[in-house]
Every structure is written in C-alpha cells, then in structure tokens.
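Replying to the earlier thread about multi-chain prediction with a worked example.

Input:
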Amino acid sequence: MEGKIEFVPAGTVTSPRGFRAGATYAGIKKKTNDVLDLGILFSEAPCVAAGIFTTNRIKAAPVVLCQERLPSGKAQAVVVNSGCANACTGEQGLADAAEVAELAAQRVGISPEGVLVASTGVIGQTLPMELIRAGIKQVVLSEDGGHELEKAIMTTDTLPKEVAAKVGESQFIIGGIAKGSGMIHPDLATMLCFLTTDAAVDIDFLRVALKRAADVSFNMVSVDGDTSTNDTVLLLANGLAGNEPISQGSKLADVFQQALDRICIYLAKCVAGDGEGANRLIEVTVSGAPGMAEARLAARTVVSSPLVKAAVYGGDPNWGRVMAAVGRSGVEVVESKIDLYIGNICLVRGGCPLPFNKEEIVAILRSPEVPISLQLNLGTATATAWGCDLSEEYVVINSHYTT
Amino acid sequence: MEGKIEFVPAGTVTSPRGFRAGATYAGIKKKTNDVLDLGILFSEAPCVAAGIFTTNRIKAAPVVLCQERLPSGKAQAVVVNSGCANACTGEQGLADAAEVAELAAQRVGISPEGVLVASTGVIGQTLPMELIRAGIKQVVLSEDGGHELEKAIMTTDTLPKEVAAKVGESQFIIGGIAKGSGMIHPDLATMLCFLTTDAAVDIDFLRVALKRAADVSFNMVSVDGDTSTNDTVLLLANGLAGNEPISQGSKLADVFQQALDRICIYLAKCVAGDGEGANRLIEVTVSGAPGMAEARLAARTVVSSPLVKAAVYGGDPNWGRVMAAVGRSGVEVVESKIDLYIGNICLVRGGCPLPFNKEEIVAILRSPEVPISLQLNLGTATATAWGCDLSEEYVVINSHYTT
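Result:
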C-alpha cells in the first residue's frame, strides 16, 4: 500500500487543491437565520468526472442533464440549489436546468458544457428562475467555500455532512459533502453528494472506483425506503496533486479506492444518523451469507424495517422483528442456523432464543450507535448497512412538508 | 350468474350453517376489560380446507404445522391464540403447537389431525402452556361465537373485522374474520384470517379460489412493509348448504369466486383502514399498466410509501411523492404519459403538473377514504391496493411493544 489515509481536520469539498466554492440565499427556501439555497463548486483546472444517479424511473431534470453530459467524462463546475427538486416539471424543467448551467458557466467563466447541475426539495414545482438568475450573480467563490456549499444543499438535515482525507504525505486529497434526511433509500446514490480530489485519475478507473465506493456506502443506507427522484453523487478529479494518473492496477489504485470508500462510508453514516427525526444510528452487519448480494440485501432489509426502527427508538428489546425482517428479505436463510447479536450480546444461537438481561440490551439500544449483527452460517460473505430509528418526529416532519 | 351476493347483517365466521366458535381469557395477554386470547372454531361436519401462509422464510410453528396438515385438504377445527406468536421458538415451539392442536381436538371431540393452529403476538417467546391447558377447557362453543373468536385474535386492532355474505336464496353463505394492525405487508396472506362456508366445494377449486381471492385482497394491503412470520388465511367448507359440489367450470363457480373475493376485499380493507395508528384508508388504483403484475406492484408500492402515507396523514397535497413512489416501484413507466388523480381531481396530465385548488385536495386527504389513481397509459391492466396513513401513533405503538 502506498501511504496511509488520514482525515483532514474540518475537511470539506474544497480541501483538495484547486477547488473553490460559494453559496448565497436566492430566496428559493423560506428565509430563516443563516439559510443558503444556491451554490457553485468550481475547479480551477478541468476535471475528469464521474457520476451515479437515482434508479427511480421518474428522474429530475438536473439528473437528466448530468446523464447527458457525463459520458464525456469531463466537468469543471457544479451548480446546485435546495428548496425545489425540479422533478416532474416536463420540458420546462429541462430548459430551466440548462439555463442554470449556463448562468453558472458565465459566473465562473467556462463553457456551459463543463457545468453539472443538481437540485433538491419539493417535487412538482418549477424552479423560480428570476430568483436564481439574480442569485447566481451573488455567489462568491472561496478556498474554504465548501462549508457554505454544504449549507446551501441542506433541507431537513440537522447537521452538515463534510469530510476530507489525505493519502500519505499529501500525495492527494479526497473531499466530500452530502445531504440526506428523507426519501433516502438510494439505489445507486444518496440524495446529493459531491466529491472532489486533486489526484490525477484515469476516467475509466474513476468510474469504477466511484461505483465500488457507492456500493459499500450510499447504497447501504436507508432512512425510509423511499428512493428519491434526484439522487446524485458526483466525483470531480482535477489532477493538481501532480501524481502519475491512477488507473486500474497502478500503484496508487488500491489506496485511492480505500480512501474513497472511507470518505463515502463516513458521509453515508452521517446521512443515516441524521435521517429525518432520527435519534441514533443503527448499524446492521450480516455475515455468513452465501454471497455478497444476499449479505447486502439482508442487511439493508433489516435496517429498513419500520418495526426494527421503532423498537430501537423505544429501547424495546423486541429482537423477533430482526428475525422477521431477515426472513422476509428474500434471502435464503435457515432459521436453525441463525445467530443474532445486539452489541456483543448473543440473543439467538442456532435459531433458539437465549435468556438475556433486559437492562443490558436496553442500554445498547439507547446508545448513539446501535450495532445489530446476524450470522447466517451459510457462507462467507459479509455486508454492513446503516439506518436510523423511527420516531414520531419523522411523521411530524413529513406530514406537513409542503404546507 | 347464479344468484346475487348479499351481505349478512352482523355476519361472522359462524354465520354459515354448522360452524360454532368460542373463546376465553387464558392469561396470555395482559388483562384488560373484556380481553380474550384463546379461541376455537369448529364445524359439526368435516370440511375441505385450504390455506395460504406467509412467504417469510422464518415461519412460526403454527404455520409449519398447518402446512404439514393441509395437503390432506381436510380439517374440522382451528385453535388460535393471541399475545404470543410462537415464532422463533425452535423444536419447543413445534411441540407446543402440536399439543395445542391435541388439546383442542379433545375439547371438541375429534382427532388431532383435524385441527389447525394459528398464533399472533410477540415473536421469540414460547407459549405459556400451563395457561393454555387450563384455558382450552374453558372454551364454550356457540352458534354466534364468531364474534368472541374475533375478539380473541385481536392485538393492537381497534375494531373487530367480521363479515358474511349469502348467495341467492341462501344457497350458501361465506363468513370470515381477520386481524391485522402491524407487521402487515402480506405476501400470500394477512396476519390472520379465518373463512368459512357451508357450500360444498371441490378441494382443487377451493384452493384456486382462495389464492385468487387473496391476490386481489390481502396481497394488496400494506400497513408498514413488514411481512409477518405468522400470516395465515384458512378457508373451511363444510358442505352443509347441500349444493352440488362446486368445481372449476360448474355453474356456481363464478358466483362463489365473486362472493369470496368480496368477503376477502372487505376484510382486507378493514385491516388496512385499522392499521396501527391509522386514521384513514388509502386506496390506490393503477390503470393503463402493461400487465397485471406491473399494475399490482405499482399500486402496492405507492400505498406502502411512508412519505405518501405521512402526507395523507398531514393533509399535505404533496403529490410528487406519489410520482416518486411509482417511479421507484420497478415498473416501467414513462413520465410524459402519466396522469395522476386525487379523488376525481387531475393533478398531473401527461407528466405535467396542473394547477389545483389546494383546499379541495386537502378536503379529500382528510376524508375517511382517500382515493389516489394513476393512469400509466401504457396498457390495459388495472389493480387496486389499500393502505393507511402514517401517524405518530404508529411509532408510539411500535416503540414499546414488548415493554
């Protein structure tokens, strides 16, 4: 392995060399203290770029635009707004997304084809273009503007989700920001995540590495089982670290993948733990599965179960719900082989319930991170998924979202 | 068609000729006013019997017992308890289920092979057999005991779910009871449902008819997406109506199927509308789908979406969530062809949002039954699914279920 991976204090999407960002309040969201709703991410050097998007068949206009532009493998800026998803908006939505890209391109002085677009917010409303035209002119880019950009993409998020890591003696840095909260059950990505790196990376490897990282991170979180129309993960690599371009099999490939995985897992856990109404992070590990697809499906089904989530919220040691969820996951399981742990306490061995100290289990369920693990004893594959508890607050937030 | 179908006032599972039932409080559930937790359904004549069970790979002991006995196509009694699911209980659970069947057989004076068993309640606890041994001796059967039996299978249900219908000049009657509430996303059945008829029915036809009826009723409801370990639908036909045995193609086959469908849809809607914490029934109809499987999947995905459910609870006209749900359902849809209605008001035509009067939509969302329909304009298949809104009360109920 080439070099160790170290998190950067207060790291964000502008931590890698050559990236700048900025944001403003354009008036798309309701005005509250300190609110931002429109931002730009920009690299001073052209980047190779890869993206992963929602598998929802109803795709927002900005997703359609990104998917049209990314086959080139190139981009230099991203413009993003919150407060309006620009989804289910027909031809008008596509025209608006293209205009937003053009306005951002003028602002940063590049051609429109170099700009990608993302939106998050209410579905079925068109973008307030007058506000956006005025707003984009107010965006000022800076070298630590990643923090502002993160604020501009938050909706019901309660905490910013930012991270950066450097590899070895700062050979290169990878940074990222994300937003999550509701409608989170990504099928190829989470709501919005922007990743940057100053590493020089071959485009083919970049695409593969991003897919791999998303599969162990964003594709393993769930807040509510609802997959968004706007899910977008973008990774821009500008090469300013000056390394030999990384490609499949090159000496930095492994450490790049590891660093990218860790960045994505960090952000994915932030998204899960800050789900709408959430009080704690649930981490479900399924091991001993016959294959990786089975391990992933079983872990994600358990972490998505509303009954498991509600039990964790209430500190209720109702482990039968974990068994019921894995049983309905579609994965072949043999009841008499299953071991079930909450924390490191075994509650079921070989399918049979063991006596347990209720207070001990309740204490684990009330901690900020709740580890649940299932050993299927059928094979060797292991996967981990992350989610959050289900509280009354989730219902309160989502029963009056547009009113 | 042979004869019209009429609902029987105060009809229940003992409305068909020759069926009796009774229940008692054995002490399995916590004592509250009027609570019952153990009951028996009995036919004075031997029955042909069909059953449909959970597809969860973790199956409760009573489900395993029923699946072992039903290939014979014969049964004469059902014994059922609430308060303990007898699921994830290993060999002990199977032995207990067999003993419960034997005790019930002694009580009603038939051989144990004629008894089917069902349980509902907490997973992972063994049956309190001392209480059940004493309890079964107290069960007294009567000709209107269906109402008592329904009470004995309720858990967090707030309303009994009972129905009966007679065909023509009382050629035959079909009766049914059900319980639902939580962990409701049946894959072949709902939590528990017992159906009786005095019609003479050929066993092959009975099995097919029950499957067909379940597919348009119980398999189209969802409360929370969690499929139970104990889902059981049983149909016993004792032939005391004295009709020519009904088989595929015989003159009463159509009307029997129609009556059974209506009975099952009635009970399924009761289960959906009385979901844990529910305030209103949501009815989602998808038409213009390319095939029936697609119509069913799309309807069920929309009615299961926690975000759609929360919006209905809050009276929030956030129709974009309906579009997002159908888009992630896995069904091939073309956004620009979709029409969306809430009640009879069109909100989306050809994928484009229409202006609407918010107060009108809010009024529909606040009514006891909320109809949502999607026209995909791709084919001719139509399916309807039923669910309920998602309230804080669902979380409250499920966060302290075992404590």
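Chain A has eleven helices and 15 strands.

Feel free to reuse this layout for your own posts.
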